[in-house]
Amino acid sequence: MKAMLQKIGLPLMHLLDPEFAHGLSINALNMGLVPTPGPVTSPRLTTTLAGMSLPNPIGLAAGFDKNAEAIAPLLASGFGFVEVGAATPRPQAGNAKPRLFRLTADDAAINRFGFNNQGMDVIAGRLARRPDSGVLGINLGANKDSSDKAEDFAKVLTTCGPHVDFATVNVSSPNTEKLRDLQGKAALEGLLEGVMTANAAVENPVAIFLKIAPDLEPSDLQDIADVALSTGISGIIATNTTLARDGLLSAHAAQVGGLSGQPLFDKSTRILAHLSKLLSGKIPLIGVGGVGSAEQAYAKIQAGASAVQLYTAMVYKGIGLAGDIARGLDDLLSRDGFENIAEAVGTKREEWL
């Protein structure tokens, strides 16, 4: 019945304003109107990411549940792990509406939300009531008007860190002025050292990931790899949304903001593969950008990812996509003779270089 409601509901949701429809999807999760079969798993899909045991390597990217309002149903929706946020120290409204656009002809979306969220204190309160099981992370953000964005990341980690399994330093959103400047080597090193110091002070330190942009040059990637290794972070998420607009067909293609979805797949996977080569397996990578099928998740893994995340594809295929991808990935691993995810990581990296 729930699967049927989802099938009927998706086309109807696409008749509504995208941001309003997104809010309805959060409500539907909390009302139990979407399938929540629990994490899809098997011996082949079970894996370890930065010391965390995952039932499968398919994660929900940050941005879907910005305010941690639907943690329990999302953890039961087939995902192996879930990331909420981004959270900033103080609540902020974000950019003016409209700020989310469907690019249906491209299986894509453009957003310029600007870290709209209810602030770290409200979000931490919800995180504190999370289910005991499941792997949950928080995306760390900085307030738009902050004079010290690096300090903002540490503040959010200190407040939310006790309730999560991992935290992501997000310096790659294109919608907060000067945020991407923090990807420069010196700024990034100082930022991550501050976050790592704050993490050490948390009662149970968590895995720390860095989320990077896809619009980077090879020299930028070398700097990021060097800083990642020197600061001791747990992994890199590659990548966030892009500012590129190549080959788009949809009417909203020229909207300002970050582009996500299918057009990002090749670009983000090439960045992933280059990082994989630079890091030589020393820290794990999480592949995100255009994942909408088991084949695409598998391609990310074979390009060098230990796990993947998705978000935009659910706009077009529904919340059940996570479980579908996990089951399809299990079949692909079996077909190719891999006994586990780790065996497949990076096996076709050279094809993306």
Descriptive account of the structure:
By secondary structure, this protein is of the alpha/beta class. The protein has a single domain (2-352), classed as TIM Barrel (Alpha-Beta Barrel). Helices cover 37% and strands 16% of the residues. It has twelve helices and 13 strands. It has helices at 2-13, 18-30, 71-75, 120-127, 149-160, 185-201, 218-231, 265-279, 294-303, 312-317, 321-335, 341-344; strands at residues 47-49, 52-54, 58-60, 81-87, 100-103, 108-111, 136-140, 166-170, 207-212, 235-238, 258-261, 285-288, 307-310. The strands form three sheets. An eight-stranded parallel beta barrel has the order 3-4-7-8-9-10-12-13, surrounded by five helices. It has a three-stranded antiparallel beta sheet with strand order 5-6-11, with no helix packed on it. Helix 6 (185-201) links the parallel strand 8 (166-170) and strand 9. The N and C termini lie far apart (45 Å). The mean pLDDT is 93.
Topology readout:
Layout lengths: L1 H12 L4 H13 L16 E3 L2 E3 L3 E3 L10 H5 L5 E7 L12 E4 L4 E4 L8 H8 L8 E5 L8 H12 L5 E5 L14 H17 L5 E6 L5 H14 L3 E4 L19 E4 L3 H15 L5 E4 L5 H10 L3 E4 L1 H6 L3 H15 L5 H4 L9
Parallel strand pairs: 3-4, 3-13, 4-7, 7-8, 8-9, 9-10, 10-12, 12-13
Antiparallel strand pairs: 1-2, 5-6, 6-11
Attribute tags:
alpha/beta; TIM Barrel; eight-stranded parallel β-barrel; 13 strands; 37% helix; 16% strand
Brief description of this entry?
The chain has 353 residues and is α/β, with parallel strands linked by helices. 37% of the residues lie in helices and 16% in strands.
